[in-house]
Write a structure and sequence with these properties.
single chain; mainly beta; four-stranded antiparallel sheet
Length: 120
């Protein structure tokens, strides 16, 4: 089992950038499929990006070309680089880790979330 802690959220102007981090404690991090989800008030939690244990990635259409997911197994850390941010990217962003390592839609353990607000 992994415990996940997100950080890096905040307030940014449209067109700006943020990098989210998800630090994991536990063993066998490299074997997990990992993902970032986001949820708006009153909305559902949607997958933003995922990366499996082999390094394959999956992105939601609206973030393709703007967001990049990556992982650093030696540091038990997952990243989400977000560029060209738009107001509609405003949400709470959650990290997810799934022991089904091949998955590109992880559905395992959740972090507590980090708020991203894009506004002028």
């Amino acid at each position: 089992q992994l415990q996940l802690v997100e950080s890096g959220g905040g307030l940014v102007q449209p067109g700006g950038s943020l990098r989210l981090l998800c630090a994991a404690t536990g063993s066998m991090f490299s074997q997990y499929a990992l993902g970032w989800y986001r949820q708006t008030p009153g909305g559902y939690r949607e997958l933003v990006a995922a990366i499996n244990s082999g390094g394959a990635t999956n992105y939601e259409d609206s973030v393709k070309g703007r967001f990049t997911i990556s992982r650093e197994n030696a540091k038990n850390t997952l990243y989400l680089q977000m560029n060209s941010l738009k107001p509609e990217d405003t949400a709470v962003y959650y990290c997810n880790a799934d022991f089904h390592g091949d998955s590109l839609r992880p559905a395992g353990f959740w972090g507590q979330g980090t708020q991203v607000t894009v506004s002028s």
